[in-house]
Amino acid sequence: MLASPANAFLFDWEEYRRTGKRKSPIGSSRKKDAVRKQASTTRKKKRPAYDGREIVNFPSSEKPGTIIIKTSERALYQVLGKGKAMRYMVAVGKDGFSWSGIARIGLKRENPRWTPPPEMIARTPKYAKWRKGMPGGIPENPLGARALYLFNKGGDTQYRIHGTNAPSSIGTAASSGCIRMLNHEVIELYGKTPVGTKVIVL
């Protein structure tokens, strides 16, 4: 007769002597414990559901209309005045692509055309087919429904506040530095944000 695997007999002898019942092999039990621990950790890391923009307490000396983006919070605040702001959850730049500074809205576009810059094409060659631009208003366009172009004294920063074709990325660090919003929320922000509006990225 073939010998059984060594761990086939590794069960809890103490439990057996005490109750007369043989428990599952120790190796199997440990594996199950590890699986349960991993599942528990995964559940803890799950992001809370985003219920949409809301008015929050936000003391600020900036004038109403100013946009303040707190990248660590994955949140965009539009100052309302009297200690209040409208808060939108956003996606921000991933590791190595985050930035901070002061800019202004220099241009606005509905259903914007997307043209990946050369450095993005170098990182992701599949974007090469769009080097002359992807039409706006199509599901594949990563800028979504609206785009607000950020400028500083040096001109176009190449960063935008825009919609997205990946709504599940909201609340994460996922972009190449742009600020992503849900499409219906960027449409709202677009409508109440004129060219020249100050944008502070922290």
Mean pLDDT: 85
Q: Tell me, what's the shape?
A: globular
Strand content: 25-35%
- What profile does the largest beta sheet have? 9 strands, mixed
The stretches of 5 or more residues where confidence is low (pLDDT under 50) are 1-11
How many strand units?
11
Enter the CATH topology name of the largest domain: L,D-transpeptidase catalytic domain-like
Helix/strand/pairing category = alpha/beta
Could you walk me through the main structural features you see in this protein, from its secondary elements to its overall organization?
The structure is a single chain. This protein has 202 residues and is an alpha/beta fold. It has 2 domains: 36 residues; 148 residues, L,D-transpeptidase catalytic domain-like (Beta Barrel). 21% of the residues lie in helices and 28% in strands. It contains 4 helices and 11 strands.
